[in-house]
Write a structure and sequence with these properties.
Chains A, B: This is 2-hydroxy-3-oxopropionate reductase. The structure is a homodimer. Chain A is α/β, with parallel strands linked by helices. Helices cover 54% and strands 14% of the residues of chain A. Chain A starts with a strand and ends in an 8-residue tail after the last helix. Chains A and B meet through strand 8, strand 9, helix 9, helix 10 and helix 11 of A and strand 8, strand 9, helix 9, helix 10 and helix 11 of B.
Chain lengths: 295, 295
C-alpha cells in the first residue's frame, strides 16, 4: 500500500518503520525532516504534506496537538491541497474529540474518508508494534486500514463514528490519572498511619481495589523510580484537553480537575519531566511524608 | 477452639456459622440476640460480652463502628470485664486505625493479645467464606487465629502491627471509591461526547485504565443495576472514617473528599441505599446526561 506519514517524531518514526518493514511504500514528511534510518529503509521524503497526500492512498498524521493537526491538514501546503477523491486520512495524534468531528467532515467534503485513531502505549509500544489503537470512523474504512494498524499495534478497537477514537483516548487518560490519584491518596494515608505501604499494596491486589495502576505505578511510587514512562507534562496536556472538551460538552469532571492541579504542583517543584506516577509527590508534600516501604 | 462472637448481624451471623460448621465451640452475644439458626447449629447464647470473654479463648467482635467496639470491649459488662491473661481479642469490624491502636494497648495491658482484622467482600463473601481479611497484630497471635480466618475468608494477609489491618481497609475503601469516580467521570464524558460508553469500556479494558472497578462496577453503571452490592450509606461511613483519620494523621485526601461529597449528592436524591457504583448518578445530574449504551 502507498502510505503517507506526517510527523516522524518519537512516536511517528518507529510507527512508520513498522510499515516499511512490512513492505509498504512510505512517503514521509516531518517538521525536522525524515529521519535517516527511515530513508535508509526506503522511505521517500516529501517537501510538503500536500506532496505526501498526492503520492499516498492512506495518509497518517502523528503530530503533537489539535492546532498542529489543523495546520498539517488544512494549512498552506497541507494534506487537503494534495487529496483526491477516494483517499483516506488517518489521524493518530491525541487531540480534541469535538474538533476531530469537524476535521472529518471537511475531509469527507473532499470525497475522502477520515479515521481518528489515537494510540496508547508510548515510545516502547511504538517500537515494539504493540500500541493500543482506539478508532473512530466508518467500518469499511477501518477494515481497509486495519492491516496497517496491525503492524503498529495489538489491541485495536473500532469504537464508533468519527470522534469516538479521540473520546476513548481522553477517557483513558482520565481514568489513568484518577487511578494514580487513588493509589497515591491510599498509600500516603497508609504510610503516615504507620503501615508498610508495600504490604498494604500487596494485601489490596487481590480485591476490588486492584488495577493496572496498583500493579505498575504503585510499585514505581514505592521504589521511587520516577523516570518516564509517561511524562507529567504530557499527561497535563491530555487532562487540559479533557477539561477543555468537558467544558465544550457541558460535563463536570471534579476529580480530573484535582488531578490536573496536583500535576501542576509536582511540575512547580521541578517534576514536569517525571513519570506520571510522581503525582504522589504532590500528596507527599501536603502530608510532609514520603511513602517509603520498610526495609 | 472455644470462640466467642459478639455482633451477629448481616456479616457476623454467617461468619460465626462458618466457625460452628468447622467444629468450633461458639459463644455468641448480639444486640438483637443470637439468631435461631446459630442456636440450632449448637451456639451457646451469652447475656453479656463479659460472659462471652469468660467462656471463650478467642473473642471476635463484628459491630458497626468505632464507638460500638469501644462499648463492647470496655463498657459495662464488656469483654474487658471477662478477660483473663492469655486470651485473644479479634476485632473484625471496620473502624478507625488510630483508636484501634489504643484498644490494642488496653487489651495488652490486661495480659491479652489483640488483632484488628477487618474484612471486605460483603454479605456474599461472608456467606461463602471467601472474605478478604486484612490483619494487624503480632505474628504469633496471627498464626494462632489463622485457622479461624481460613474458615471465614480466602485472601488473608498479616499487614503489620496493630492498626495496620484497619489502615489497609481504609486504603481499600479510598481506592475503590476513587476508581468508581474515575470510571464515572470517563464514561459520562465519553457518553456525552457521543461515543457508546459500553464500547469505550470494552476498548479500555486491555490497557492501563483497566481495574476491577472497570470490569465490575462500570458494567453496573451501563446496565443501570444499582441494587447493592455495597450500599452508598456504608461507603459514606467508610470515607467519613478515612477523612477523620486523615485529619488526625495530617494527610490531605482531596479526591476522597470529592467522592464523599458526590456520595452525599446521590444520597440527597434518595440513593443512599443504592450500590456505590451509583456514584455515577451525581456526575450525570451535573451533566444532565445518562451513560446509556447504544442498543
Amino acid at each position: 500500500m502507498k502510505v503517507g506519514f506526517i510527523g516522524l517524531g518519537i512516536m511517528g518514526a518507529p510507527m512508520a518503520g513498522q510499515l516499511i518493514a512490512a513492505g509498504h511504500t512510505l512517503y514521509g514528511q516531518s517538521r525536522s525532516g525524515v529521519p535517516q534510518a527511515l530513508l535508509d529503509a526506503g522511505a521517500t521524503a516529501c517537501d510538503t504534506a500536500a506532496d505526501v497526500a498526492r503520492n499516498a492512498d492512506v495518509i497518517i498524521t502523528m503530530v503533537p496537538d489539535t492546532p498542529d493537526v489543523a495546520k498539517v491538514l488544512f494549512g498552506e501546503g497541507g494534506v487537503a491541497e494534495g487529496l483526491s477523491a477516494g483517499k483516506i486520512v488517518v489521524d493518530m495524534s491525541s487531540i480534541a474529540p469535538v474538533e476531530t468531528k469537524e476535521f472529518a467532515k471537511k475531509i469527507n467534503d473532499l470525497g475522502c474518508q477520515y479515521l481518528d485513531a489515537p494510540v496508547s502505549g508510548g515510545e516502547v509500544g511504538a517500537k515494539a508494534g504493540t500500541l493500543t489503537i482506539m478508532v473512530g470512523g466508518p467500518e469499511a474504512t477501518f477494515e481497509t486500514v486495519k492491516p496497517l494498524f496491525e503492524k503498529m499495534g495489538k489491541n485495536i478497537t473500532l469504537v464508533g463514528e468519527n470522534g469516538a477514537g479521540q473520546t476513548t483516548k481522553v477517557a483513558n487518560q482520565i481514568i489513568v490519572a484518577l487511578n494514580i490519584l487513588a493509589v497515591s491518596e491510599a498509600l500516603v494515608f497508609a504510610s503516615k498511619a504507620g503501615a508498610d505501604p508495600a504490604k498494604v499494596r500487596q494485601a489490596l491486589m487481590g480485591g476490588f481495589a486492584n488495577s493496572k495502576i496498583l500493579e505498575v505505578h504503585a510499585e514505581r511510587m514505592l521504589k521511587r523510580t520516577f523516570n518516564p514512562g509517561f511524562r507529567i507534562a504530557l499527561h497535563q496536556k491530555d487532562l487540559a484537553l479533557a477539561l477543555a472538551s468537558a467544558k465544550q460538552l457541558e460535563v463536570a469532571l471534579p476529580s480530573t480537575a484535582i488531578a490536573q492541579q496536583l500535576f501542576s504542583a509536582v511540575a512547580a517543584n521541578g517534576g514536569a519531566g517525571l513519570d506520571h506516577s510522581a503525582l504522589v509527590k504532590a500528596l507527599e508534600l501536603q502530608a510532609a511524608h514520603t511513602v517509603t516501604p520498610e526495609a
